[in-house]
Write a sequence for this structure.
């Protein structure tokens, strides 16, 4: 079983990230997945996270115990959840938004900056997803290419696919 936590703040697409990867796993890669979310009372700007479990077998307990990967897109998300990552787990951070002094393995991508270069920072989560999928191999590239169009507004499908590919290439 693979346990991934996405953490950031409202408005970054943290919840949607879990939904997209969970959909790719369950529908297109024929795996089992569960996703739980947590967010503060603020609509935007408050802390939020999504927990994603992916397995080849039925998942009996739908919550993360200790994550294999923490994908942190805000300093607060990193600070809150870094201690819950397994000792041999990996931190994947937005290099421009998160500073770390962790002794765990840390992988960095400037996902927000890449998204801005693509035209808008709103695509930072999908840039990050491209990176995460290439690094973790949680789901197949084809599954993601099918799940993204079903998970974003139709008018943004092409830009999201391009953002995903940028993150994938960066890794």
């Amino acid at each position: 079983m693979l346990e991934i936590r996405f953490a950031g703040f409202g408005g970054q697409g943290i919840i949607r990230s879990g939904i997209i990867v969970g959909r790719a796993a369950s529908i297109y890669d024929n795996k089992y997945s569960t996703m739980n979310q947590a967010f503060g009372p603020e609509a935007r700007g408050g802390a939020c996270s999504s927990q994603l479990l992916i397995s080849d077998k039925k998942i009996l307990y739908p919550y993360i115990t200790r994550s294999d990967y923490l994908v942190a897109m805000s300093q607060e998300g990193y600070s809150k959840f870094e201690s819950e990552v397994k000792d041999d787990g990996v931190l994947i951070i937005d290099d421009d938004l998160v500073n770390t002094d962790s002794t765990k393995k840390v992988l960095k991508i400037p996902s927000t900056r890449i998204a801005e270069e693509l035209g808008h920072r709103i695509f930072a989560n999908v840039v990050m997803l491209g990176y995460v999928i290439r690094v973790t191999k949680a789901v197949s590239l084809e599954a993601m290419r099918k799940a993204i169009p079903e998970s974003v507004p139709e008018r943004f499908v092409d830009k999201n696919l391009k953002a995903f590919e940028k993150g994938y290439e960066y890794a």
Notes: The chain has one domain: 2-170. The longest strand covers residues 85-94. Residues 2-170 form a domain with the Pyruvate-ferredoxin Oxidoreductase; domain 3 fold (CATH 3.40.920.10). The mean pLDDT is 94.
